Amino acid sequence: MAATPRLEIRNLTRRFDGRAVVDDVSLQVMPGQVTCLLGPSGCGKSTTLRMIAGVEMQDSGSIWVDGELICDTHFRIPPERRRIGLMFQDFALFPHLSVAENVAFGLTGSAGEKRARVETMLDRVNLRRFIDAWPHELSGGEQQRVALARALAPDPRIMLMDEPFSGLDNRLRDEIRDTTLSVLKDADAAVLLVTHEPDEAMRMADDIALMRHGKIVQQGAPYNIYNAPKDKEAVAFFSDIN
Ligand code: ADP
Ligand code: MG
């Protein structure tokens, strides 16, 4: 029997002003896998992620987690009960909370249990020494690592990441991509990572879904997509990699 996907979206469509910005998108992500939704700005990546997170409603289609329906046009599990971790570029740390309080934000349990979990998560991103620091005392890359620790602290089944590294400079980005990947692999969540940068997808993905004008036009292993882009537009898109 085939394994059940952690995350499955079926025929998801979202229209704005009559235009389908997400157009009949279907996708599966297995636990422990990183799938990249890769495509140019405006193709519908963030809208897809927002529907999975539950902060945007689809016009048609359904979302399934571990084989259970979590959302269609008649039924909807609220965002906070979906066990989904979020890491968005503009979803920064809370500036008025310490690093420890940021990481503890989504946790339940006793103060002692929360503290232990915070320490574990900060160890994973190698930032335990900053446990009592304030966000503004950290560099941009360190803040992103704390955001990763915060997102993974409640042990989400799914991690949604929307261009999480685009605010960082190039040198830092390579490093944080590697750290992120190793932390994600330990977490065993299904990861859906949105990016418009082919080299980021090549570096991080087990599976790439190439998106254009609201549709997935090609899907497969990074190496296969890179070596056999489906059409001229896909070739042009990948030719940016250096
Ligand atoms: P991406 O993340 O790939 O850059 P988005 O999902 O943000 O793309 O947007 C896809 C398209 O949908 C864009 O043309 C955008 O302008 C449009 N769009 C997104 N959100 C809304 C909205 N709330 N109202 C109207 N149009 C929207
Ligand atoms: Mg976007």
From TrEMBL:
Work out whether the entry's keyword set contains Aminoacyl-tRNA synthetase.
no
GO biological process terms, alphabetically, are:
quaternary ammonium group transport
Any one Gene Ontology MF annotation carried by this entry is: ABC-type ferric iron transporter activity
Q: Which GO terms describe its cellular component?
A: ATP-binding cassette (ABC) transporter complex
Question: Per UniProt, which keywords does this protein have?
Answer: ATP-binding, Cell membrane, Ion transport, Iron, Iron transport, Membrane, Nucleotide-binding, Transport
Which ranges carry the ABC transporter domain?
Answer: 7-238
What is the protein name stated in its UniProt record?
ABC transporter ATPase
Task: Say which residues of the entire protein are included here.
Answer: 1 to 242 of 359
